[in-house]
Each structure stands twice: as C-alpha cells, then as structure tokens.
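Throughout our pipeline, every protein is held as a single compact record rather than as scattered files. Nothing more is needed to write down the fold, since each code stands for a local backbone conformation. For reference, a complete record is included directly beneath this paragraph.
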Amino acid sequence: MRAIWQDDVLAESDRTILVEGVHYFPPESIRPEYFTPSDTRTICPWKGEAAYYSVTVGENVQRDAAWTYPDPLPRARHFKDYMAFWRGIQVVE
C-alpha cells in the first residue's frame, strides 16, 4: 500500500493494518520529512486519543491529513503509532 499526495509517496508498506476500512501504516514506513505535528486531537471510544499531523509537499499544506494513536486504549494497542490518512491523501495498492 502507498499513501500519495501531490504525486509524492508519503508512506509505503506491505504491512498496513486495516481498521474500520482505513489502512494504518507502520511507523517505519512513514517519510517523516512530510509531516508536521498539529495541535488537533480527537477521541475514539475504543482507540483513545488521536494525534494529528499536517502534510506538506513543496509549498502545499494539507492540514490534519494524517493521524495516529501514540497512547491507544488496550483494544487498539496492536496499531500504536501506525498512521492513517484522509483529506485528499490517496491510499492505493
């Protein structure tokens, strides 16, 4: 699986975890130069608190387009620190 935005590959892995129809990429597959931490947080009742990242490619910024669970609840520990995408980020095989 690959996460792509603005023709750049943000993450690539054959070990994503599919959760509720969303691919979560392992931490080592993420290209960190594209990501900036955001102050945005959301709460999922079974996963815990999500931390968001904005994605920057060149001069283009997609705010809060990626998220992860750095300290997940017990049922979500198997994808701790894995990253998921939305807001125009394409996830393709």
